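Task 17 of the worksheet. Students: predict the tertiary structure of the chain below and write it out as structure tokens. Keep your answer in the requested format; marks are given for formatting as well as content.
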Amino acid sequence: MPSPLLLTPENTLPVDGLRGTLIGRAWIPGEVAGPSPVLLREGGVYDLTGLAPTLSGLLELPELLASLRESSGRRIASVAELLANSGSLRNPALPSLLAPADLQVIKAAGVTFAASMLERVIEERAGGDPQSAEAIRGKVRAVIGDNLASVQPGSKSAQRLKALLIEQGLWSQYLEVGIGPDAEIFTKAPVLAAVGSGSEIGIHPGSAWNNPEPEVVLVVNSRGTVLGATLGNDVNLRDFEGRSALLLSKAKDNNGSCAIGPFIRLFDDSFSLDDVRQCVVELRVEGEDGFVLDGSSSMAQISRDPLDLVAQTLNRNHQYPDGFLLFLGTLFAPTEDRDQPGGGFTHKLHDRVSIGSAKLGVLHNRVGRSDEVAPWTFGLRDLINNLGARRLL
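Model answer:
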């Protein structure tokens, strides 16, 4: 049996602790148990259902920060107690942490960093075969190089590069969304399907080449206002997507394949969108076999500004009346061999995945199979019925 996954304030909170405005969701036991938006303070974790019954509704409040400052919701636990009951060992009689999203649509932007863009081209050329990837990687880099980060998507220089790559027979649909005018924006997971910190993430049992994708996730309300950020793991099956881009939904949306958390940090005088633009996201994978993988993704190297990605998501062509969360993409695409030369990296059962950033804290999950991790059973009907039973509607 793997060692239990334990969450503490020390391994979860931002480096400045509770200085920022941290909100999230927790499952609160009681006569009628259910999910509630919560606020973290020095004095503990407080139920915010007096302000709004859902996190989505809370984020629609016109004076959110002022409302949170004035809120005197019920204290449900200390921060340490909530985290201690949110790892592998959970007591259903105590509050536990959930993913900080409920009615919001979970969207993702793909191919937003040059390095991961090249890896998508390599996946496509390899047809999802990790054994072929290394040889193709050398050929692609020999022609394209590593300087795509300086190419502004949709610019004249990008158009010239496209013409050159077509001439060389190296054009790809991934380069189209990477350096073309239109970003790749897709739906990562259904509403309410995300898992939070401490939960298992799911890898499809048919996948032999997969990886974590550590990302910053923007939190946006229905008006398109970016209110804060959190962390996410856009769990990805490289072999499925490499076989065909039309398998993107099967590569990206499986049981437990979307992890978000641990909390949302709202923009205030301690944290801003500029902090997001400059933050570094750290990744650590620790295997039961002793394997350790470390990596990082610097948001300073993103090819499209976060606000451009938000504008390409919500506009006159598409609205989100309950708001949305937006994964911003990742620089990280692991190529380090795990088992054999040329085999690259892939997950193994019980891998511990930690995704952290100084001002956003750390998201912790353990790897399982999507057909064996806890099934997703609490949907929209359940939420509506639960809120009604708790007299919150």
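Marker's comment: The CA atoms of residues 223 and 323 lie 8 Å apart. The radius of gyration is 21 Å.
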